[in-house]
Amino acid sequence: MPRRTTLILLLGQAMLVAQAPVWATTLPQTPYRLYAVGVVSLQEDEAGARIKARQAARLELLLTLRTKARGTVTAQTRTVRAWDEGSESSQSSVGTFGTRMDLQTFAEALPGLGVQEVWVDQVRRQVFALASLDLIRAREAHSEEGRALQTQIAASISEPPGNGWKEHLRRFMEAQALADRLATWADTRWLLSGAGVPPGPQGPNPAQLRQLRERSQMSLSLEETLDLPVDLVTGLHAWRSRRSLGTPTPSPLRLSTKATSGWSRLMDLDRVRAQWTLVLTSPEGDQLAVWTFEDQAVGASRSEALQRLTRMLLPRVQEALDRWFGFHSPSQTTSPTEAS
After folding, report:
1. b/e per residue 164-180 (b: at least 16 CB within 10 A)
2. Cα separation, 233 vs 276, whole angstroms
3. Is 131 helix (H, G, I), strand (E, B) or coil?
């Protein structure tokens, strides 16, 4: 009887394995279409594993594209956003997409990239997903985006200049949005080159980018109302410089920062809890946005705990400011409270 039970179980497992789709082991071959498979372990939450498998499949396809593009790097260069220099520069595309998060974020918005099928292997406790990229659709969408960018940047440059900080801010956020789209467009151009897709239009020229930058400058002055950690002050100044917010204008926005902190002893460790409040103010004194960040950290000394706390909170501070000023930021951790 036990031998018969074992035989039935083995037959059942064999039937489950036999039901595996062909694409789980051999990728389809279709003209003008690329495929990739993502595989994740099946834990208790099958729905969550399916989502992760779909994400893994998209990521695997873009990693394949990136590998192909890097293989042609001697012949392929891309024009990068010359936001600070205001001039054209060509660089190797090897540095494009430095992290998996960059690729995953990019995969969600790439036209023609989708997941066709998902299969659950109950025997091996794995979830498989098949992703595909329609190269024709991707090329058409990329070309259309290039033409739209040329038109919109030209329209922004030809728009009559305005006065006041609100107009400066509007132009700055508009220009930053166009610059982010242009960077994504350039990355798409480079990735598609790895799949043998002929390049589309060149996009805006460096002179247009320089004009766009000059007509949309915005400055932000920092006002430390209390003695803040050095790392926080340094991080805010570095963020402002990186985002080109340091050029003086007749009416800059002002960011005042205030911190309150508490310290306590925990066994042989020091614990620091701090609350940082940032207030963005207009030249007329109106509060535009208020952010509050609070957390705690433990270290071998009070100074070490404060440094750890700063490293924890500074990215959240920068992300909140990025979102307010219209900079692209993939994560959403803290939302500002808009002042009425």
Report:
1. ebeebbebbbbbbebbe
2. 12
3. strand
Residue 303 pLDDT > 80, yes or no?
yes
Global confidence as pTM: 0.68
pLDDT digits (tens, 9 = 90+) for 33-71: 889 999 999 877 888 999 999 999 998 998 888 887 776
Q: Tokens representing 183?
A: 């960077």
Q: How far apart are CA 337 and CA 340, in angstroms?
A: 9
Asked if residue 139 lies in contact with residue 198, where contact means CB atoms within 8 angstroms, the answer is yes
Amino acid making up residue 275: Q
- The candidate with the shortest Cα–Cα distance to 293, out of 266, 271, 269, 311, is 311
State the pLDDT at residue 333.
34
Tally of CB atoms within 10 A around 236: 21
* CATH number of the 220-338 domain: 3.30.160.150
CA 319/CA 336 separation, integer angstroms: 10
Name the DSSP class of 103.
H
Which CATH architecture best describes the domain 2-135? Answer: Roll (3.10)
Give the pairing of strands 253-266 and 220-224.
Answer: parallel
Residue 23 carries which DSSP code? G
- For the chain, the average pLDDT equals 77
Partner residues linked to 278 by β-bridges? 257, 291
Domain-by-domain residue ranges, the chain?
2-135, 137-214, 220-338
Read off the pLDDT of residues 220-278 as tens digits, 9 standing for 90 and up. 888 877 677 888 888 888 898 888 887 666 678 999 888 888 888 877 788 888 888 99
